[in-house]
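Example 4.3 (complexes with small molecules)
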Amino acid sequence: MSNRLNRHRSLIAGLAAFFAVFAFSMSQFHGSASAADVTTGSVAITVSSGKAGKVSAVGPATVTKRIGKKGARVTGSVSSATYDATVGASVAGGIRFSNGKRRIAVTGIGLSFYKSRVVLSGKLGGKQLNVFKATGSPEVDTAKGVASLSGGKLTFTKAAAAKVRKALKLRKAPRGRIGGLGIQFNTTFVDQYHEQCGVAVDSRSVGSWPAESALPVLTGATATARPTSIDWGLRASFRGYIFGTMAAAGKSEKALQALDGAGRTNPPMSPTRGFSFPVSAGQYAANSPGSSSDDQAIINGTGTALFCNTEHFFWASITDPTIVIDGANSRIVATISQNINGNGMFGANGPWQTPQRVDLATLDLSAVTPTIGEGGTLTYTDIPVSMSASAAPFATYRAGTALDPITVTIGA
Ligand code: HEM
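Answer. The structure with protoporphyrin IX containing FE bound is encoded below.
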């Protein structure tokens, strides 16, 4: 992304008119205030064998095709889907089987994709169980939020076949292939800052970053009374870029948003100033007396900094930063997330990377000696901060990119 960005930045002036047009079309696109994912699609369950009596639909599902005297295709819409370890969705309505006056229905149908099969569970005659299995070549894309199966071979599970036989008083349980299954649905993901920033999600990436490393365990630590806030804002040039772009579009108030109890740093002179994260708790261990080089501290900040650039179709967020003072392992740990859609202007659209706690930045204490102040406070001034290898390329910044230095005053 950085290379592409660098190459294209020179073209920017000429593209200004284009941005205006895109910004307009995007604002149309973002008319919805919905904070939830939207799934549309349908599932078509075809039971054509006649082995399970006469087939009909339980509304709002409908019979979309009759097959012979008994068989039918029943189609129900899919309105919610999940894309976790397995992809799943629920189907509206159900399917009914009857034999004379006897009848049994499957309702509350949930479907789950497993490699080459799909399992449909539901309430059959009032009991929750796996009802159908279908084999075929399902296609799922959890990043894009799409799932489909065409021409799946449908069978009842053993338990369901026995139940249908009993309820309908059939001579034989409906074993073997009974028909087919077709599935097609897709989900438009909505990111967690849709309301605050309004960038469309192109694809979703869960677990994009390596997990944060374990915090040090401090021995003989004392609780800190200071700092009362962590004052930091990632990188001044990033804030300036975002604020500038947004201000030019009359959206300056959306550019740098302090959320979840965070604030902006004082004094409130510069519109591009950083963020202030209130500290909820801190601990400090002096360790060897007379030496500050092995001092350790963990300072927990709270709140969110949201960097929102709808004009360039991205946002990045930093939540609950923790400062860790621990020699060569000194760092800023935080929950980060970003939607770097970009809208194709610099090549392929980027993903929405869902929130994760990571080692965000490295603190270089090698050249910083804390100074002792009133009441024994320790002040580390302008600690050099750089983008960590594990978070990079966060906000497109490569590992090692210099971020804003941070100053921390620790006091008991
Ligand atoms: C429509 C797409 C985009 C356009 C037109 C665009 C345009 C630009 C321009 C003109 C600059 C130079 C600003 C300056 O030096 O004053 C810039 C810088 C930058 N852009 Fe974008 N950008 C786009 C998408 C993105 C995306 C998706 C990200 C992801 C976070 C991003 C992150 C950055 C960063 C980090 C900088 C450098 C800021 C700094 O100086 O530290 N941009 N972009």
